[in-house]
Amino acid sequence: MRRFRTAGLAVLGAALFASVAASPAQASPGETRTVCANSMTPDGWVDVNWGVNASCGGGSLSPNIKMIKQVDGLPVGSQVNACATTLPPKGWIKLQTYYTSSCQAFVNPSFTPNAWLLQRAS
């Protein structure tokens, strides 16, 4: 009985980790994914939110997950609010810089601008 419970927990944990650490390879423009914060944000994606979730480990209140958004393929003129933790993708320009609590990527946040309003220029 104990083996079945252990195996069941292992399968459940693997499924949860796979959903959080899913590869953004086959994404549609505008699609969002949640990944562990130690994952690199792929080209053509931007960080749009930071948070804390036990599925990515850690036992502190430090942000350890991030939501990323696929911006490649969005039409010219599209606007996206993005965290300033990644550079704007090629073809995107910054229209505005501001502060938002959803882009706090560190434990000791300040009210320094940490987000951008981006627009697709080309």
What topology emerges from the helices and strands here?
Layout: H1 2-20, E1 32-36, E2 45-51, E3 65-70, E4 79-83, E5 92-98, E6 115-120
Structure, explained:
With 122 residues, the protein is of the alpha+beta class. The chain has one domain. The chain is 16% helix and 30% strand. It is built from 1 helix and 6 strands; from the N terminus they run H-E-E-E-E-E-E. The chain has a 3-stranded antiparallel beta sheet, with no helix packed on it. The longest helix has 19 residues. The protein is flat.
Spatial extent as radius of gyration: 17 Å
Largest sheet: 3 strands, antiparallel
Query: What class, by secondary structure content?
Result: alpha+beta
The arrangement of helices and strands along the chain is HEEEEEE
- In spatial order, strands of the major sheet run 1-3-2
Number of domains: 1
Low-confidence stretches: 1-22
- The oligomeric status of these chains comes to single chain
DSSP summary, beta strand count: 6
Strand portion? 25-35%
Let me know the average pLDDT. 83
Shape: flat
The separation of the N and C termini measures 60 Å
Helix content: 10-25%
Q: Give me the number of helical elements.
A: 1
Organism: Streptomyces olivoverticillatus
Protein name: Secreted protein
Signal peptide: 1-27
Keywords: Signal
